[in-house]
Amino acid sequence: MTNPNMQPIFILPEGTQRTSGKNAQKVNISAAKAVAExxxxxxxxxxxxxxxxxxxxxxxxxxxxxxxxxxxxxEHPSAKMIVEVAKTQEDEVGDGTTTAVILAxxxxxxxxxxxxxxxxxxxxxxxxxxxxxKAQEILNEVAEKLTIKDxxxxxxxxxxxxxxxxxxxxxxxxxxxVVKAVKSVAEINDKEITVDKDNIKIEKKVGGSVEDTxxxxxxxxxxxxxxxxxxxKIDEVKIALIDxxxxxxxxxxxxxxxxxxxxxxxxxxxxxxKMIKDMTTxxxxxxxxxxxxxxxxxxxxxxxxxxxxxxxxRRISKSDMTKLSRATGARIVTSLEDxxxxxxxxxxxxxxxxxxxEEMTFVKECKNPKAxxxxxxxxxxxxxxxxxxAITDAVGDVAASLANxxxxxxxxxxxxxxxxxxxxFANTLSGREQLAVEAFALAxxxxxxxxxxxxxxxxIDVMTELKSAHDKKQKWAGIDVFTGKVKDSWRAGVIExxxxxxxxxxxxxxxxxxxxxxxDVISGSGGSKGxxxxxxxxxxxxxxxxxx
Length: 548
Known about the structure:
This protein is α+β, with helices and mostly antiparallel strands. About 45% of the residues lie in helices and about 15% in strands. Among the domains are: about 20-145 and about 410-445 and about 500-520, GroEL-like equatorial domain (GROEL, domain 1), CATH 1.10.560; about 220-250 and about 260-370, GroEL (3-Layer(bba) Sandwich). It is elongated.
C-alpha cells in the first residue's frame, strides 16, 4: 500500500514538461491540423497566395506548399513532422506538396473523432494502413498508360502543374519548353525511362517578361570571359574542361628559393613564364578554342590564351562542369598531359551575352545534349522566383510521368474514385478497423471539397454531383472550378502523374499513423534549471513538471 505521506520522486530534470494520454494526442493533432489549414487555401487553380516576411524583412510571395512551410518558422515537433511530408513529396515528385499536407491534416482530424469514441490508436493505425494499401491499389487500377511520344499529354501535364501559379498566363509556352527539356535529358534503357532532374539547369534573371523564358540546348554559365581581348563569340566550338589551375603551383612542402643577383631573378621570372606558356600551348595544340576551368587562371595565362583567340572562363562550379560534360560530350581532365583532341566537347557556338546587368556565357546548339538550361525571365524578382517554382513543379511532374509511365485525371476525380472504392472495401471488414477505413475515405474527399471551397462553390452540392457522376462509371469526372460544373478532367486536359497521388497517400498516412501512436510528449530542458534550452512548445493542458 502506498504511503500518502511519502515525498514524490522526480526522475526528470526541473523544467521538463510532460503531456500524456489524450491530452498529448489532442495537442499533436491540433498542431498538425493548424499546419494543414495554413496551406489549404492555396490548393487548385483558384488557390490564393501567401506573403511570408522573414526576420530580415525579405518577402516571399507564393502558393507553393513546401516553400510556404519551409519559410515559416515552425517549432512544434508534430507540426515539423507534417512539414517533412511536404519535403518528401517535393523530393520524390516535385509537386503535390499541398495535397499531401492537407490529406495528412484531414486524416488526423477524422481520427480525433474516433479517439473520442474510445477507438484505440493502434486499431486506427491498422485501419489507416489497410486503407492506404487499398487506395494505392485503386489508383493503380484507374491510371492510364503514357509513352514518351505522347507530346500532347505531356504538355497537358506540364500545364496542369502550372495552373494556379504565377506562370499560369504563359503556361502554354512554358509547357512546351518544359516537355522539350525533359525529353532532351531522358534516357531509355530496356524500355525504362529515367530522367535526372539535375541535368535540367534553371537559371533565373530579372528582366523582360515571362514569355522571354527560353530553352537552351546546352548550358548557361553565370560567368564572363576572363580577358577582354578574348573573342566574344566563337563558332564551331571545341571545348576543354579542366579541373586544375592554369597557374604556377606552389610546392606541397615548405621551400625557400635564394636569389643572389638580378640575373637569377630574371631567370626565375622567365622560367615561370615558360611554364605558363607551356600550359597554354598544350591547350592550343589539343585543338581547343574554348576553355572552362574549375579553378583559377593566371593573368599571364589569360594573356597567352587571348593572343591565340581562345575563349576562357574560370571558377566554374563542379555541378556546372558535370552539366557541360553531359551537354558537349567533353571529358573533364585533371592534368593537361591528358588533354587530347578526343577529350574535347563540341557545341554550335559559345557567346558572352549581357542578360539584365550581368554578362553570362552561353554554350548553345550542342548535338544531342544530355544537359540543358532553362533561362527564366520575369519583370520582378518575386515574379521570377514564382515562375521558377512553377517550372520546377512542371519538370517534376513530366519527369515522374515518364519514369512511372502512368497518369491520372485531375480536378479531384481520382480522390472521389478512391473514396468510393474505400467505402466498398470498408464494408468487407469486421471490427473497428472498418471505422478507420471509412474515416480514411472521408479524409480523401478533402481534396475535391477544398478545390470547390477555394473556387467559392458550395462543397456539398459539388460533392453530391461528383459522387453521382462516379456512380455512373465516369471515373474522370472532376470539378471545373471556373464554371462550377462537373467535367471530364481527362478530356479537359487536366492530367497529373500517378506518383503525385500515390506518394501523397503513402506519406500522409504514414505520418498520421506515427502521430496517432504518440501518447506521451516529454519536453526536456537539457538539464538547465531555467529550461532555457527547451524547444518551444505550445501550452500543454495537463502537463506535469516531472515524472513520479
